[in-house]
Amino acid sequence: MYLYNQKGGTMKNTVIRMIIAACLLMIVGTASAAVMTNPGVVGNYETLTIPSGYTLTIDENESLVCGMGATINVECGATVIVNGNMDIAYSTLNNNGTVINNKYLCIVPGTLNNCGVLENHGSIPSDGTIINNENAKFYNYGFISNCGWFYNSGTLYLYPSGVIVNDAIQGNPGVVAGSRNTEIPEFPTIALPLVTILGLAFMFQRRKE
User: Fold this and answer.
1) I need a surface site. Which of 48, 88, 114, 181 has the fewest CB within 10 A?
2) How much is the pTM?
C-alpha cells in the first residue's frame, strides 16, 4: 500500500529509471565491442589496421592472406582471433592489442612483432622473425616450429601442452607456467546485476523509513 502514495510513487519511478539505465548501459557496452569483417586478403604493400575496441575473427573455414610487404596493425584494445588460417608470409604483424591463435598462424617467412598479448593454442610455423618485446606477454599452449629467429625481451609463458621445436630463443628464457584462466566477464554482465541490487536495496530502505 505504501508504494501507491506520492512518496512511494516517486521511489518506484526512481527504481524503474535505474533499471532502464542499467539496460542502456548493457546495450552500449555490447555495442562498443565492434566486429570487423575479415577482408580475406591484404594486398601487396597494403596496411590493415584493427582499431581499438574492434575484434577481427577469422572463422574456421576462412583465411586471411597477406601479400608481399603487407602490414597488419592490431591497436591497443583491439583483438584478433584466429580460428582458421592467417598467413603473414613476407609481411608483418604488429600486435599492440591481443592476438589469440586457435589454429594456424603462418610466418614463413615474415615478422611477428608482439608488443601486447599473444596466445597460441594452435600452430605457428616460422622461418621468419618472432619478437616478443619488453612488457609484452606470449602464452604458448600449442606448437611453434621455430626455424627462424625468436627474440624474447618480454615474458614468454611455456605451458605443459606447448611445444617449441628448435627452441633457440634469444634474450629472456621462457617461464614454465601452469594453467591460466583467460575468461574475463564483460562489464555489462557485472554492471546490470549490481545496479539492480542497489536499486532494490534503495527501495527497501525507503520503505522502512
Assistant:
1) 181
2) 0.71
